[in-house]
Write the structure tokens for this entry.
Amino acid sequence: MTDGQHLRADVCIVGAGPAGITLARKLAKHGHAVCLLESGGEDFEQDAQSLYTGASVGMTYYPLENTRLRFFGGTIHIWGGRCGQLDDIDFERREWVAHSGWPFGAEALAGYYRGAHEILRLGSYGYDERLWREIGASRPPFDEKLFTTRFWRFDKREEPFALRHCEDLVRSENVEVVLHANAVHIQAGPDARSVTGIRISTLDGRQGKVSAAYYVLACGGIENPRLLLSSRDVEVNGIGNGFDQVGRYFMEHPHCRAGRLDGNRSYALWDGMRKRYLADNIAVAPALLPTASLQREKEILNCALTFKLQRDPSRGISTGKRIYEHLRHELAPDRRGRRIYYTYRGLKRWFDRNLRPTVEHALSALGITGLTLIVRAEQAPNPHSRVRLSNRKDILGLPCPELDWQLSSQDKNTVTVLTDTLGSEFERLGMGELKKSGWLDEPALEWPVDLGVGPHPIGGYHHMGTTRMSADPRTGVVDADSRVHNYRNLYVAGSSVFPTSGWANPTLTIMALSLRLADHLDTRLRN
């Protein structure tokens, strides 16, 4: 990018992560000119990464600059590869979950889920209980009226959206990839009904502009609202924020240890619900979910329950776990650091697949380990959980983000109800007593900092909901087509548009939504 450069395209996409790259690829195949802006370079650069610095003033959370990566490919460079598909109920309006409901049903994404699945090379298609037959294993014997099973599939490639794996974009005559181009301002027209351009800047002071027929923000659940809120020369509260919705409803997938089952029967359950199986040469892992009928009856949220054989918490955290958490959260995410992390992760997966069953069986027989219930919880949409702008500015002059993450009594009650229900199932099956974690009986909403799960009670850097979909601009930021309400040509891609988070990791849904948005924009451009 040269100083003063004015770029033009049919579609300008801000952010080269899974959402933006997936969208750019499909639009290019449709024959449209795309300008794909990326703040960082081809690999990690500390100066670019520092632009992610922000404050966290709510629930205990990671430093914001550690939860995202600012270079081509985005945070998927430290992705675990875990892919899941939302359930039908995750899209529904649930009377017991305030602010729930997507503006379309699960059927609207069915074909796009398959498309995302194929892009990620996840083998034969399927995420539900029928997969038990394919992997040659039996479904756990829990009451089918209470619990069902779903599967994650794992992308076995490292860094599938790295620039070296996106040569099709680089070679395409329809795509212009611009690195080190920071979007610093969305220029709205005087009537606040359309966008006329995106101002861009580099860290060394070069300035430029992009003009396009359509603009798509694909910067993630913190940067999307940050850019909308900071562009306020026409709309004083920020673009698309006439009803104070931008930045609200921030959701994560909070994790916790909910209970523990000791005794020899625990190994058999762990062996059936183990971390990995192979299906069509792709790693898959089962999770236990509450059925839709149980969610309705108990008025709870959706969750994924998994099991770990662990030492008693009083014995402390294992050395291997400490090494893994250090590599994941403390090692610099440059190419060398990621190589160390991926090498260790590969060794760990080999151990899990080839040696862990034998080791765990012996430890369980000796009474050294017990079965720990791990909950990956859906978080209820909460307007008080939000991203705001702080008074501090970054080196480019943009206000830094401030995250006020809030959990509710419904989030905690869901874990309590599921733990109690599962405990009753253990007793019915003669598997022993599930000892509920003590924090669930305490009145405080704060979830425990638990190194047995991770350094904080959090999920996997899943930033959702801050530009949520809604048919009504009074309750959301974008419509069913991901278009910012009242704006003719401004769209948002990624998990920030999720009205609810559901149980599943968001990447597959992010990509499905991007494929859907590409078809919508193709139609608009052709008309």
